[in-house]
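Lab notebook, bench 4. We co-purified these components, and the gel suggests they stay together. Before we commit to crystallization screens, I want a quick structural picture of the whole thing.
Request: model the full complex, all chains together.
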Amino acid sequence: MDTRRVVLIVAALSLPLSAPVAAQGPVALQGGAPGTARAAAPYDVTGYWVSEVTEKWRYRMVVPDKGDYVQVPLNPEGRKVANAWDPTRDQASGEACKSYGAAALLQVPGRLHISWQDDSTLRVDTDSGTQTRRFRFALPQGQGAPSESRDGGSASPNETPSWQGHSVATWGGGEPRDRRDGQGGPVQDATGRLVVAPAQRKETDYLKVSTTRMRPGYLQKNGVPYSGDALLEEYFDTFSDPYTHNTWLVVTTVVTDPRYLIEPLIMHAHFKKIPDASGWDPTPCRADEPR
Amino acid sequence: MRFTILLLLVFLLPNRPASGQVDLAGEWSPRVYNTHMDIGDYTGIPLNDAGRLRAEAWHPDQLDLPENLCRPHPIDIGLRVSVSQLRITNELDNETRRPVGLRLKVAWQEPEQVIYLDGRPHPSAHAPHRWSGFSTGRWERNTLVYTTTHLKEAYLTRTGVPKSPKATVTTRVHRYGNLLTIVFIINDPAYMTAPYIRESSWIADPNQVIPPFPCEITPDGTIVPAGKVPSFLPGKNDVLNEFATEYGIPLEAALGGEETLYPEYIKKMKTMKVAPRTTTEHFRRAQ
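Here is the predicted assembly.
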């Protein structure tokens, strides 16, 4: 066997191993114009999803008692507000949606419908509380009004706070490879500047959403507060489990609120993908119900 | 010939399965919020009847038996139910010093788990089961995914919900900057009707020190009378309903099951009997 043939055989054998899942680029799962967030989606997050409540069940499937904030790093001011919770007052004063705000919405048991509103905006509708969130990605170069921000539309200081706030989305994970990963790092270009070549970047593989300009709301149904100064950061990931082959959406939520929390609160929620809208059960905001 | 070698290297170099896509090594400080601290709190667990029967037989005094005093949790449980400071290091082959995977170490009882990423197979089904089990993994994009088999029988909670030695655990580790999220997918056909999925997070903490965990076993009979194994016989657990009563939850809901995990169950609970509450401040015991 000549050398050339050996090389070809080795190369052929290597190909499947050399193309791990991690090396697959963004897949055009959603269509969308080239260069848009929709076209760059590394996975399909759209569709119908239902909560599976295995975490903090007694805080989510029933309304917990007033003062039960054992798992929340509240500061004294936060405790004071939580201890003054009055669901009847909230309902009567039109504040029943306080526990359906962006920071808590995905903790509320229910169904989600995620869809692309346009090539740069993911829309999340919930049946619990009948709420809508919009995750805005950066617009491609040359699109949008000249005054429009390119970073997904940062919230204007004059923007009126809302229950769902202003959400900016990015496909995360595509940071430069780290030398510690054994993958090299930035390289020098012709002028000697350190630049990150495409080959030195990791593949994007999760959705990060940062939300500000929220109306003050509740982290739990029992009046555990977050303030209008809170920053909400969420990380969305999907996978198929090897046992049932169901598709799952896992959301890691980090709430930073210097007014009421002594450190960021981290919460999790996961959702099972379902084929359609069956079971969709829209409810109004209710201050004294779990959903 | 030099060209041939070069070409071979080009094709073979990407086949380094033990090399990480993301650097997970380091010290990680837990942001784990314990639940299931009460006897009779099986909420959110897709238990089947056999699992529930075993759980109901568990007595808290079992923790004081000599064989249980220094009994470690398997690491998948240790990461959830104890003071789970976490250290991740790269695991090197003793002879060649080539990376073969990652090693996880947890503070409480200091269990360790090696996750092999070099493509080695799992041992025979007849191989001994250990607290750490046997784990092999791979990278899916930037997520470390590994499967653990050969685990000893253990608990899912600190209040006696069992996990059988038939269980396997698939774990997904994802680093979001300085945040590490681990998703556990526990499949136990003996005691559950569906995989049990739960998540926890850690924060990078380079200065974290994991203290040693010395543990001493007291002689048999010191705490619990020698030869006695505390337990509840079926139907005789007289504290089983306390959690449900004190939190105002229907007993049936508190005892878990797959149906209880979904939003529709909230409506169903409204039709169930709830025992008169004895307190509304039960939670303060945990503060």
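The two ends of chain B are 71 Å apart (CA to CA). Worth comparing against the SEC data before the next meeting. Confidence is low (pLDDT under 50) at residues 9-17 of chain B.
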